Amino acid sequence: MNLAADLANRRPESVDELTDRCRAAGLMLECPVTADDLGRTQAALDAWERIVDAAEEQERAELLNQMLAEAAAYPRLTSHSGTGWHLHYRDAEQPVGSVLFTLFAVGTALHLAGRGMHRLRRCEVTECDTAFADTSPTGRQRYCSQRCANRDAVRRHRARAAIT
Q1: Which of 19, 54, 78, 96 has the CA that lies 20 to 30 A from 155?
Q2: What is the distance between the alpha carbons of residues 60 and 58, in angstroms, rounded to a whole number?
Q3: Distance of alpha carbon 143 from alpha carbon 145, whole angstroms
Q4: Which residues of 70-102 are buried (b: 16+ CB within 10 A; e: fewer)?
Q5: What is the pLDDT of residues 25-78, one digit of tens each?
């Protein structure tokens, strides 16, 4: 899910950029990335951001279920490129755009089902619209980064000081 947030917050503009960022995230690319994959990835990110921005849990679940239905394939054990046995939630030999769509859908579903439906959001700093997955122990993360948390704390402090 971190890859979905990373790509959504700074959309890839080219096939080469998408390739580089997928590899940097540790994704094994089984085939070359194409322009169609870039387009499919943009569509997947659009769908994922609708989930992030859903106002209610039920809406979030419905949007995610739509994404999962489109990505659906039976889970399978696989071992490729010396990575050891692991699960794939997609059919073999899919283009990269379809792989990313499935990764975003399944990763988000596992995160929200395991940690809570509220643990996907945007930063609370007004000038920041960064999407993030809340992985905090308490499930109360409000900011995308320590920088934004500090910025908001300074703003609140200055607002209190101006009142007194």
Answers
A1: 54
A2: 5
A3: 5
A4: ebeeeeeeeeeeeeeeeebbbeeebbbbbbbbb
A5: 998 888 899 999 999 999 999 999 999 999 999 999 999 999 999 987 778 888
